Amino acid sequence: MSKTANKKVVCQKLIEFAEKDSDIVALTSDSRGSASMTEFGNQLPDQLVEVGIAEQNIVGMAAGLAAGGKKPFITSYAAFVTMRAIEQVKVDVAYSNVNVKIIGISGGVSYGPLGMSHHTLHDIAVMRAIPNIKMVMPADRYDTEKLMEELVDYQGPVYVRVGRNPVEDVHKSADYEFKIGKADQLRDGSDLTIIATGELVSTALKAANLLKKDDLSCRVINMHTLKPLDEKAIIKAAEDTGKIVTVEEHSIYGGLGSAVSQVVAENHPVPVKVFGIPDEPAVTGYPEDIFNEYGLTPANIAEKAKRMFN
Amino acid sequence: MNKLVFLEEKATQIRRDLLKMIVNAGTGHTAGSLSNTDIMTVLFYEVMDMKVDDPDWEDRDRFILSKGHSVESYYTILADKGYFDKEELNTFCQYKSRLIGHPNNKVPGVEMNTGALGHGLAIATGIAKAAKMSKKDYKVYTLMGDGEQAEGSVWEAAMAASHFKLDNLVGIVDRNNLQITDNTERVMTLEPLAEKWKSFGWEVIEVDGHNYQELIDAFSESKKNNGKPTLVLANTIKGKGVSFMENKVEWHHGLPSAEELAQALEELSSQKEVKQNV
Ligand SMILES: Cc1ncc(C[n+]2csc(CCOP(=O)(O)OP(=O)(O)O)c2C)c(N)n1
Ligand SMILES: [Mg+2]
């Protein structure tokens, strides 16, 4: 299986779009290298705005650039751009409803050993509570590429979270439909649905493979868009399979699990089991260590999912 | 032993230890720690009043590492001073180690958790205000990066500290002219930096951040109670002490290979000998 970091795809696509459209502006906050945006800066220096280590300013300025007719794409650390600058996101970008794209890089526990200041396990909760802004977490390079292609023509605020490290493909090719706000069903099944988002979708697929060995048929949904959430797909999963498991690199509070539970509880109550990071400063270590610690592994997810049938 | 020779030897040892720790961990912010090692050595071995066997002693001087990514120099110094066992440095950045890649106040000697830039000065301002309110004599020191000066929160705190006449507060800027991407002036112009701080009501003392005597003098000067906070603008070299790292932006979080480590350690020990023979 091929492995590519989603942030690299973001940069490639941005160069491609910006070469054709001089109104596209990339903004960085001493995040150029970390965001893999060095190449953009080299090729299109006049379309890159570097603001220094100033996340509030990067978001405020992007709102202003959009108001001035530009098409700004922020590429900055997910941890800081979704917390330090959250008021600018809420008021300047979302409330004024301007055309700003925010790409949060190295999200989740990508910076595992660097501690809670550098973990981003809150962004789904925060962004979902702000009106007007959409949120997407692509699962692999195909998702990222298709997402970028949709974003370049889309008018309005969108926040995207990608990780730092190369991720496995969850799609075999680019031959599938990707649409912001529409769930991507990777596999059909009748006993259980696993709904996952972002770079843990591949873990969900592996869990489904393990469950298959126990003759449990799993539907697997890649819920790349956290907002607007594809409620229909969730309700249908509850109706068709009767059990739901959610998997995310986020706090168990306010993330995908919470969102799915709300939809299920209001529309078609069935058991839901949520896998995410518990309410504590996440342990530090490399992402794999952290996923192991909190049972975000195919084996543990499959094991706990099986118990839902007892 | 002569004080300056002692500090020089100490700083060299800290540099060696932190490089070994980074290589052992396989990760770290290398050049920024080397940049501020001399400043931290002067603070921890000469200037600040603290009790290793009583880290929570209420009259201790306080230190906040606002440039939290330079935690390597901090942990190495705390271990050397005896706040925890030096062996523990081998766990830096490893699974569940309390020696996280940014300051962790579960580690004895660390006051506050930092890592997000632009926070230290506001925290230090709060501690200094608390000292004034409870009529305590301790001093509060915070070390910032120069790239970090672009964060607006630095200037909100700068304004407050002078408004509250916090002459028990010392801010230090590690002025190494580099951040992650490039030279600071190409990323976001900081100059005239001294004038900015002065205009915010601070007493500004500019020093060579690798000159122990100048640093000691600046910190003594900061102790005069003139109703103003002090900013020590310390001109430094990022990667100081290792020829191939000095002033090289790529060493911000560059990881030395085994050969590079060997060369760095050798350079650091020979520099010490040269100085001692003078
Ligand atoms: C709020 C915030 N934004 C971004 C970062 C990522 N970051 C870590 S170190 C660094 C550069 C720091 O440069 P400088 O302040 O000059 O410190 P130096 O290492 O040069 O001493 C950046 C951008 C961070 N830690 N916190
Ligand atoms: Mg610097």
TrEMBL record, chain A:
Superkingdom of the source species: Bacteria
Write down a Pfam family by its short name: Transket_pyr
- CDD domains (alphabetical): TPP_PYR_DXS_TK_like
Lipid metabolism keyword on record? no
Needed cofactors, names only, are:
thiamine diphosphate
Ordered alphabetically, the record's keywords are: Thiamine pyrophosphate
> Gene3D superfamilies, alphabetically?
3.40.50.920, 3.40.50.970
Which residue intervals define the domain Transketolase-like pyrimidine-binding in the entry? 4-170
Can you tell me which family this protein belongs to? Belongs to the transketolase family.
- UniProt name for this protein: Transketolase
TrEMBL record, chain B:
Family (UniProt): Belongs to the transketolase family.
Q: Which domain of life is it from?
A: Bacteria
- PANTHER family membership: TRANSKETOLASE N-TERMINAL SECTION-RELATED
Instruction: State the name under which the record lists this protein.
Output: Transketolase
Q: Which cofactor does it need?
A: thiamine diphosphate
Name the UniProt key words of this record, in alphabetical order. Thiamine pyrophosphate
Q: Say which species the protein is native to.
A: Halanaerobium saccharolyticum
- Residue ranges of the Transketolase N-terminal domain? 13-267
**Ubl conjugation as UniProt keyword:** no
